[in-house]
Structures are given as structure tokens and as C-alpha cells.
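Async update (no meeting this week)

Hi team, since we skipped the sync, here's where things stand on the single-chain job. The sequence we agreed to prioritize is pasted below, unchanged from the tracker. I ran it this morning and attached the output directly underneath so nobody has to dig for it. Comments welcome in thread, and please keep replies under the output.
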Amino acid sequence: MTREETFLALQDDFDILIIGGGATGLGIAIDAATRGFRTALVEGGDFAQATSSRATKLVHGGVRYLASGQVHLVYEALHERAVMLRNAPHLVHAQPFVMPTYTWHELPYYGAGLMLYNLMSGRASLGPTSILGAKATKARVPNIATKGLTGSVVFHDGQFNDARLALALAQTAADHGAVIQNYARCMRLLSTVGRLSGAIVTDAETGTEYTVHAKTVINATGIFTDEIRELDDPGIPPLLTVSRGTHIVVGPEFLGSNSAIMVPKTKDGRVIFAIPWQGKVVIGTTDLPAPSSQMEPGHSRDEIDFLIETIGPYLTRTVQPSDVLSVFSGLRPLVTGKASKTSKISREHHIDASPHGLVTVAGGKWTTYRRMAEDTLNFMVREGMIEKRPCITDKVKLHGAPMEPVGGDAFLREYGSEASELQAMAEVEPTLSQTIDAALPYTFAQIIFAVRFEMARTLEDVLSRRTRSLLLDSAAALRAAPAVASLMARELGKDQTWVEQQITAFAALAERNYML
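Output:
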């Protein structure tokens, strides 16, 4: 459907209206639609525009949760990790990790813990856990620091492209009959005889208001959860604490390996990673309290210095600020607990219903998005809000999931079964096979595809989420912006004024939030 047709479809009557187009809301939309409920989802910005596109790119059980005794959370996440790999093999893959040790007692200690971690995954193991000596560790990660190195523990977890997986969730929900719309902001909640009965939604592009009628309404807005709760009940105490996680991106030469490094303990009690991703290396993350929920939380120079200083002793080459290609930050929606630090607050999710019937789901983590969705609908069944129907999402392949393993170019592979369409576009118009910038792997064909088939509406949508240009190399993304905006304008029927506005807005975004 076109954007206009989707807004018209939103004026139908639905069983379930979901507010929020991040991992949680999109997962709920798939679950609701595949259970046979008439489902609609509205997102005020772009899909995964906030937290769900700013992850550390890991699909994992959470090694540090095991260390803190949250065994049930680890076990659940390891099960969901296996589901994600099975249902989205084009977007999720196994990733080897090396945990280096520099004292002799660390080797058996961490080795035992990570062998237990792998044992808990059972048949869903992504690879064996093994203990290596210093020489073998150096062979595996050539650029690891060797002074005092006693060895390492090698284990395996999952990795993914978070923004494109979120897009695949949106497409999958639509494939199963859900009405999905981005840039559709919930302005007010509707009530009939004291119970919620829908929402007033505004098209962010035209300002037109639409009325969406629904028997039930779900608040899955992540870091903006409390804003929707206040629409239902003004003055209600906040549910969330938000913390900021910042990452830096550097070139692949800093690792020189396809294995990631995990630093098991930092001075603030966290673990941090140096992870090969999309041809670069992502180093992160921090965990600092954030004063408020913002789409772009920015970063501090202290965070950059912390990441550089913390990873420094583990690499042969010191990261300099001039080596940083991009910085990206996101906010974690943490359900308020008694922990004194945000890094100690549990990542388990929370579900409740207000007296007026607003169902809120908050917290959690990317890896358990599907389980959060299942728990939410099961909660609604128990509350008598919807009828009982079986959940089948553990077997639902996501949009683009190929029947056979996909080979070839890694960036094309993420399109799965739709990769052939991209190739065909470039054959018809050969200039589309050119990359948008010499430092980026993406082609002009991917830009056209994003506009025609992936609901991209802005330059940021394309350069930040449909491709990951902004996260991989912010300067290169800025260089590519004029040509990309012009091509988008041709597809969207926009004029030169729109092109210039998009370039200006994107430049301000990049310079303020993604560059040092």
C-alpha cells in the first residue's frame, strides 16, 4: 500500500492498536497478526529510530547476567537467540569472541563460566568454548596486546543489524495483515465509557489527523513509555529510568580479526566489547544515567575517553580521537528498581494494565523481543482483554528470510530473498551499482530500494537505518548526502527545496550527535 492508502486503512476498526515501532512494538504486531487479531501499529518517527537502532549489535544471553546470578534471564535469552538465528538467517549470524586474560587465575575462572554459558544453550550452541594459550590467542587476534597475556577464552554469541531487523519485523507484520505506519504520531487516546477505544494519530508529513478505533491499546514506546502513560493518566508517577549507552566506531585494522574482544570488567563494573561489524569495529558501551528521554541523546567527551582508555590496554595500537569514524548513542528504557547504578538495573521486562485498559510493556532487551511480545499478549488473555489464541512466532520466518543459506556480498546478503531485486535494478540502470561514497559499501540501488519498498521518507532514514552509513563513517555519510537526497527526491516527487532541507537537517544531526 502507498502511505496514503495505509492512513486510510488505519481508519478501520482493530482488535489491537500498538503505539511504538521499535523492537518491542513490532514484535507484538507480528504476534498479534499471526494469532489472527486485526492489528495496527503507529510509530511517531521512523521504525527503530531511537533505542532499537543503537544497540551493541549483539544477540546474546548476557554473560554478565550469569555472573550476577540471573540464570533464568540468561536461559531465556539464549533460547530466543536460537529463534532469531533460525527465523532471520539473513540478518543474524554467529560471532566468535575472545576474552583475554592477564593473570593465571582468570583463565580457569572465566573458562568455567563461559563453558557453563555455552552448556546452557544446549543444542542451540553457536560454537564450542575453548581455552587458548597466549600464542594461540595472538594468532586468532593479531592486534591483541600481548604484554602479560596468559591466554584467552573463546566463546560464541550472535550478532545482527538491529535497524534492518526492525524493518524486517515491520514488513513481516504487514505480510501477515497488520497495518503498519511510520511518521504517524499518537496525539491523544480515545475513551468510551471509561475504557480506551483507540487514538487520534497525526501524519507527521501533512499534519492530517486520523482516528484509529481499537478494542485494546498497547503502549510499546520504549524510552517514551511514560509520555503515553501520561496521556492515559496525567500525573502518574514515572515507570522508567533511562541510561545512555555510547559507542565509537573505528577501522578494522584495530582488531585485524573476525573475532571480537570482550573486556570482562571495567572500572564502572561493566563489560565492554570491540566487535567487528559491517567492515568496521564497534567499541562500547558506556552506561550513564540520562536526565530525560530524547531521540538523539548525544554523548560526552568523557565517554569517548573512557572507551578509548578502557580498550587501550587490550590492543597493540592505541585508538586516537582522530581514528574515530563515528559515535552513536542510545537510551535504555530501564524499569525502575532499587539498584544504585543503571548498570545494575535488571533488563527484565515489565507489563501492566491501567484502570482504563492501557497495556504498557517496558524494559527488556533486543534478544528477548519475541518473548516480550508473547508475554504481553498472554497477559492480555489472562486479563480478559483478548481471547486465547496460540502464539506461533517462534516458527515465523521474518521477511526476506531465504529458504537456503545466502552467500555472496555481506551487505547484499542482508536483503535475503529480495537481494535479486536489487541486482535486477542495477542491471536495468547500471549507474545504480555505484557506491554512494568511496568509503561506504552501499549502492544507489539500495537507496532506490529503501524508498520504493522499505518506507524510507527522509535522508536520515536511508543513511542511518536502511543503510548504516551514518554509524559506520559519519564524514562519508555527509559527503554522500547531496547525491542520495537528490535521488530520493526523484523517487518521492520532491523539489530542490526539499533536497536542501534534508541535507541541512542531516548535516546538523551528524555534526551534533555522530562526530567528535
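Quick observations from my side:
Residues 474-492 form the longest helix (19 residues).
The chain has three domains: 3-51+164-237+346-395, 81-158+241-344, 410-513.
Reply here if anything looks off.
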